[in-house]
Amino acid sequence: MKYLYYLLFLIACTPAVMAQTAQEIVDRADANASFDHATMQATITSTDAFGTKVYETQIQQSGRDDSLIVFLAGENKGQKILRTPNELFVYYPDADNVVRLKGAALRQSAFGDVSYEDLANSKTRSDRFNLTLVSTENVDGFTTWVIDLVAKNKGESYPKQRLWIDQATYTIVRAEYRSDSGKLLRELRANDIVKRGNQFIATQLTFQDATKKNSSSTLRITKIDLDTPLPTNTFTVANLSF
Amino acid sequence: MSYIYRYLSLLSCMMILIIFPHRSLEAWELQTRLEADAFIQNRTPDLGWQVVGLVSARMAITHRTAQMRVEVTPEFTQIGLTSNFGFYRAFWRANFGSHFRMTLGKAPITWGRGYYYNTGDLFFSASSSGITLSSDNFRDNARWLLNFYIPLGRFSYIEVVGATGSGAGSIVSIDNTTGSVTPMQGDSFHYRNLAGGIRAQFQWLGVQTELATAYLGEKESLRHALTLSGGIAQTLDWYLGARYDWNPQQQIATKEKFELSMGFSLPWTFQNRQRLTVALESIIRPFGKWQRYADAGVEDYGAEIFAQLTYQPISIMSLTTRVVFSPVDLSSYIFGEVAFYPIQDLSIFLGVGAQVGSSEPAIFQQSNPNSISVYLRSTYTF
């Protein structure tokens, strides 16, 4: 009889353990994309009806607050962009000058369809959106949770979003970004997931502009280093202009 | 042409001497920029229409370690029949721990804030007037200097600079018709023309604040500047600056040289990748001339306004309009440009500039009131 009580207790508890809320899922997905310190090299290929542009970059991140992008090749070679929670510092190598921007530049495109907000955003999604777990779905071979997001405040670039989060790795494998009226503006597909420590990272992200034909940007991470601590002055103006 | 080869050989030898001590050549980065320009203009009535061709080439050679950076960029420019050789940049920069950083050589000094007007740029003029509006970078002037940069936290620092006078950018100029060679540095290294300054930049109530003082030997002038910049509601970036000159010899402030500059910029990216940027700047000299004077220089007038509108409808093309306007006599210089980016790193610009509004305008000092200039410019970086 005692074992029967145990069994009933376990059956009663199992759904509570297994069922996760939308916030728990999204928080874990956000945690997957936040690093104590990371240095990555990425190739960004931006394509539209008129051709393709390729950017070689190095991206360094610390937590959710700070990121540093360095252009490694091409016309913008040597240009650096430091993103902090409320500011953008841009280093122009020709002028050897750092310009601080606090305005709309923060929401501008960094490369093609990739915005600075895609590269780093100091607030988690659960801080910025109301979340609803809609269903589960198979997408590109992943078993995913489907979660709808509605912005809590005005000012979000994409006030309505739907995320497909892989149940095995808590990685966002697909996303739709919509306007306030619900019009589809942009789509994301992510794949080539690798494990580093306790984190899963999608190393290929393809952003598709839904308002334009044949317009997409693919960010392919070619090198990831999560082990080497970043120098303490990495996210400073002094380092930017060095 | 033998003179050209002689000086190219000399520059090559200098490069080898600089690079040779660092034998691990794989650590060096190379970037070459080629530019070809053609101007057709009738700026003066007596000279009529003129065609000016310009070709320039520069190669940036950079060596970088965690604590040191060396950058050498020799530059060759051919304007008509005149060849110029020099260094666009040539400096050594090193971190001394986290305490300070030193730069020695030819490097830019870009103090203050402002795209076209910048009163915080103490080593140079506050106004870019006179520079063709086809340029996309009005302020990248460099000087031979010794610079100490002392960080004070993440976003604050003090910078101390000692620099040469304003001399020409090239080392030598060669007239290819006569073969005459002219050294171009002039008196910029003379001790009387040396300049020095200090600036502090910090954030105060969310506003970036810059205080600067500089002594310019060739002008026998002590300049002070204050520049503030910030943003409003993630919509608009603004700046406001002021500077005045003090003559220590005469113990007076040159009130005509009290200048204010201000501006804002507003960028938009639409969902279909189209981009629009609006920038508006102004310089005000409260004690300047507010009427047209025949002998007045362009920087003597009381006010000037600069506006720029850039629209990029598709990724391979952008349209830009720039206007410099003088409220003193309502004269203006209007410039329109189409830029094409047919392949990555290649840019082609076609622009037309026209002076309108006054027979003796208070801007640009062009004596032909109806002058028109056509610009064709292309740059390729690899």
Automatic annotation (TrEMBL), chain A:
Name the CDD domains for this protein.
LolA_like (cd16329)
Which residue spans traverse the membrane? Answer: none
Q: Does the keyword DNA-binding apply?
A: no
Q: Which residue positions does the secretion signal occupy?
A: 1-19
Highest taxon in the source lineage: Bacteria
Q: Which UniProt keywords apply?
A: Lipoprotein, Signal
Task: Please state every residue range assigned to the domain named Uncharacterized protein TP-0789.
Answer: 63-240
Cited PANTHER family: SPORULATION PROTEIN YDCC
Q: What is this protein called?
A: Outer membrane lipoprotein-sorting protein
Organism of origin is Entomospira nematocerorum
From TrEMBL, chain B:
Q: Which organism does this sequence originate in?
A: Entomospira nematocerorum
**Identification of the protein by name:** Uncharacterized protein
